[in-house]
Design brief:
The complex is a heterodimer. Chain A is of the alpha/beta class. Chain A has helices at 4-41, 79-92, 106-118, 133-137, 159-165, 187-192, 204-214, 229-238, 256-271, 286-291, 305-311, 316-322, 354-364, 367-377, 390-393, 399-406, 417-432, 438-450, and strands at 65-73, 96-104, 125-129, 166-167, 170-171, 174-175, 177-178, 181-186, 221-223, 295-302, 323-326, 338-339, 343-347, 380-381, 409-410. The N and C termini of chain A lie far apart (75 Å). Chain A binds chain B through residues 1-2, 4, 7, 11, 14-15, 18, 111, 114-115, 117-120, 135-136, 138-141, 218, 276-282, 294, 418, 422, 426, 429-430, 433, 435, and chain B through 6, 8, 10-11, 14-15, 28-29, 32-33, 36, 68-73, 159-160, 178, 181-183, 267, 269-272, 286-289.
């Protein structure tokens, strides 16, 4: 039993506790009221903190401030490039428009954006890899742009890009710039092996020979190719194959051409043994490893390799001096091929100000802004009208080679790409790890994929 | 509580009786006093319910629905279909096998090395300052962020330029394993990394256990002429038993839930050789965009954790051993 004195002390402490709690509570309430005032001054909080909007449309009353949230992949495009457009919008609309420009690394991009969109917290505008457009379209939250297609001269885009951004006859985005897949090689290593540093192998058999001459493991591998469905597209296209039959509901890679494409990977890792002892299954370190001289030839890689070279502090001249670039080798019986990708601008219909967002999209997708973006980023334009714009191409490395490559370009299926990529990549890795023969692995992928399409 | 038993509230009752009239404020204090235990426990209770119980119940609810990531509002009730699909898929059993290998090896390594290091550093076999230095040094892996650990070990295990293989080559192993790019060796690389990271936790945990053992037991062993090894075997380890049990439970739960480091180091590859249950759950949610199935996997993971705890308690002779 507690004695009375002790009890009294305890009671006094509890009284202090109650008093302290009361004071804290009152202070908290006051702080809360103060916060509320601030929100009111800013135009009224709508609970939509995700895009940082200070105001919103309530009934007939349009707010005075609008923050346009723009998400882009971590790379060449910067906030400053878009500020002139924001200034134009500010002079047109009776609102204080600002830009919240946010960059996300490519590896997390799709997951982050899909989660935000799914959770009802989509940004206003986002740059989306074309192969993801199908996933975002399925959310039902992409804004459509059929009404402004003439304004931005939609027909001027190359056919493959137009197809990629049209879903069920709705234009859901506008292509920004593109990229091509080609072959890179290390000129110094070619020279030291007694090979012509300015010419890469053209056919697969030449490629196997040259890579074998350069192969000196573990210091240097003749070649190395990332084993993934996207990379496989180039040997597939050059052998005359396709991923899916027209209509996109049936796999087509089990054809002889498809098997031939998979044999290209099999030869590198298993038959010719001109690559690293374990296949490369992730692309994370691949460009750096190539640039550091781990692989003498990168037979299929994106034209953004120069981005990583510049990150290493190399100038364009140094890059061209040290590395060669051309279209990837093709089978003797096939034809040269490349695969084109790239990002598109899309907007979400959950925005508070669809009028401003659509206007913004129209302005950044116009030919002049496309010209500016391609010129300032050194990226390949997607408009036919810019094919001869010298100021655009002067910043693009190997521009003549790339212009030639564009005529051999093919694209990946947009709608079912996630399923194709996931299932086919696993099968191709089984080939690379010599756990399955190419035809058997592709058939297994096709069987699994048939249930998903 | 029976009427005859004394209660801490008796003081208040007595006080009420002796005071003819209480002021309003004092009556408020009295009421607060009576509710004080509940008031004190309320914040923790709210945190547990809000941050643990509610999400767990919500995850179970989601597991009964088809929930696409791109539109979380569009939920379709499918009953136990997600569970059936998971359990009917052979891939799940491959992932489970990987998980069991990864967890078992990691737990044995972490607890085994942790106990050994703790005993070595505790028994005065090292100079006190040296022991404190080692304890501080060993804790560093545990204090490092998981993702940084993942990236660091990815570099360390690089087959060509990684420090591990350079060391092995220096020792005369001409063709050391390609580690993370090898179907056979990737899981070994992950286990080594996880043991390296988790051992300090076990070491600190066991050190606290060792410090709770009374010196008189060791004196008695010395007087009885026990050797150091005998003392460890017959005094230290039996008295550490409850600590080892708790350590095993915690490390197993931690390891079952590891996914960040694996995501960074291998992404579950090559050929899913390192895909464990927690990573599979993450990929199902965020790569395949199927929140419903991912929630079902989360519920299964929770059940496996419960079963593991039950298994340990049974082996160690009941819940009393853990307290």
């Amino acid at each position: 039993m507690v004695d009375s004195d002790q009890h009294t002390d305890s009671l006094v402490n509890r009284r202090r506790f109650v008093k302290a709690a009361g004071v804290t509570g009152v202070a908290g309430l006051l702080a809360g009221c103060s916060g509320g005032d601030s929100t009111t001054t800013n135009g009224g909080g709508n609970g939509n903190g995700g895009n940082g909007n200070g105001g919103t449309t309530t009934g007939n009353q349009t707010s005075k401030t609008f923050t346009l949230e723009y998400i882009d992949v971590d790379g060449d495009r910067t906030k400053e490039m878009f500020m002139p457009v924001i200034e134009e919008l500010n002079s047109k609309y009776d609102a204080e428009i600002s830009l919240n420009f946010r960059e996300v690394p490519y590896g997390n991009y799709k997951k982050q954006l899909l989660t935000r969109v799914g959770g009802g917290n989509a940004p206003d505008v986002a740059a989306i890899d074309q192969i993801w457009l199908g996933s975002f379209y399925n959310s039902g939250k992409l804004m459509t742009f059929n009404d402004i297609q003439e304004q931005i001269n939609f027909d001027d885009y190359f056919a493959g890009f137009k197809e990629a951004v049209v879903q069920e006859e709705n234009i859901v985005g506008f292509p920004i710039t593109t990229d091509v897949r080609g072959m890179y090689w290390n000129k110094d290593q070619f020279e030291s092996a007694g090979l012509d540093p300015n010419t890469g192998p053209e056919t697969w058999s030449e490629f196997y020979d040259v890579a074998a001459q350069l192969h000196d493991p573990p210091n240097r591998y003749g070649t190395g190719i990332i084993v993934a469905a996207g990379i496989y597209s180039v040997p597939l296209f050059s052998a005359g194959g396709q991923f899916l039959k027209s209509g996109g509901s049936e796999p087509a890679f089990t054809s002889d051409a498809g098997v031939k494409g998979a044999e290209f990977i099999d030869k590198i890792y298993n038959e010719e043994k001109i690559g690293p002892s374990s296949p490369i299954t992730g692309g994370g370190n691949y460009p750096q490893e190539f640039l550091n001289g781990t692989y003498s030839i990168a037979p299929v890689y994106g034209s953004w390799m120069d981005f990583f070279a510049r990150q290493k502090g190399m100038s364009n001249e140094e890059i061209k001096q040290k590395y060669g670039f051309s279209i990837s080798p093709h089978p003797s019986s096939g034809s040269p091929a490349t695969m084109m990708g790239g990002f598109a601008w899309s907007a979400f219909n959950t925005t508070d100000r669809p009028d401003i967002v659509k206007d913004f999209m129209g302005r950044i997708s116009g030919q002049e802004f496309n010209r500016k973006i391609a010129r300032e980023t050194g990226r390949i334009p997607t408009r036919k009208a810019l094919l001869d714009a010298s100021e655009v191409w002067s910043n693009i490395l190997w521009s003549d080679t790339i212009k030639e490559m564009l005529e051999y370009g093919g694209t990946r299926p947009v709608n079912n790409w996630s399923a194709v990529d996931e299932i086919l990549t696993t099968s191709l890795q089984e080939v690379a790890y010599d756990r399955a023969e190419p035809r058997e692995a592709l058939q297994s992928a096709a069987d699994e994929l048939a249930g998903e399409l | 509580m029976s009427d005859s038993e004394p209660s801490y509230l008796d003081g208040f009752e007595a006080r009420r009786e002796t005071q003819t009239e209480l002021s309003r404020l004092e009556r408020l204090y009295d009421r607060v006093d009576q509710k004080l235990p509940y008031i004190m426990i309320a914040p923790v209770f709210i945190i547990v319910v809000g941050l643990m119980l509610y999400p767990a119940v919500w995850a179970f609810k989601l597991s009964l629905y088809d929930v696409p990531i791109s539109n979380l509002d569009n939920q379709v009730f499918v009953g136990f279909q997600n569970y059936v699909e998971i359990l009917m898929n052979s891939f799940f059993y491959k992932v489970m096998k990987n998980s069991v290998v990864f967890v078992s090896a990691s737990v044995v390594g972490q607890v085994g090395i942790g106990v050994t290091l703790a005993v070595l550093l505790d028994r005065g076999w090292l100079d006190d300052r040296l022991a404190r230095f080692f304890r501080a040094t060993y804790i560093l892996p545990w204090a490092t962020t998981a993702v940084i650990v993942g990236y660091s070990w990815q570099f360390l295990l690089n087959p060509r330029v990684g420090l591990v293989n350079q060391f092995l080559r220096a020792l005369g192993w001409a063709n050391p394993p390609p580690w993370l790019t090898s179907v056979q060796w990737a899981i070994v690389g992950l286990i080594i990394m996880n043991i390296w990271r988790g051992t300090p936790f076990s070491m600190i945990f066991q050190t606290s256990g060792l410090q709770s053992i009374q010196e008189s037991f060791y004196e008695a062993a010395r007087v009885g002429g026990a050797s150091r090894l005998q003392t460890v075997r017959n005094v230290t380890l039996p008295l550490l038993r409850p600590f080892i049990l708790m350590n095993l439970i915690l490390v197993t739960l931690f390891t079952f839930n590891v996914f960040g480091m694996i995501l960074v180091m291998t992404g579950g590859g090559p050929l899913d050789a390192t895909n464990v249950l927690a990573l599979h759950m993450y990929q199902t949610a965020f790569s395949l965009g199927n929140f419903g199935k991912a929630s079902a996997l989360a519920v299964l993971l929770f059940l496996f954790n419960l079963l593991t705890v039950a298994f340990y308690l049974r082996v160690f002779g009941g819940v009393d051993q853990a307290i």
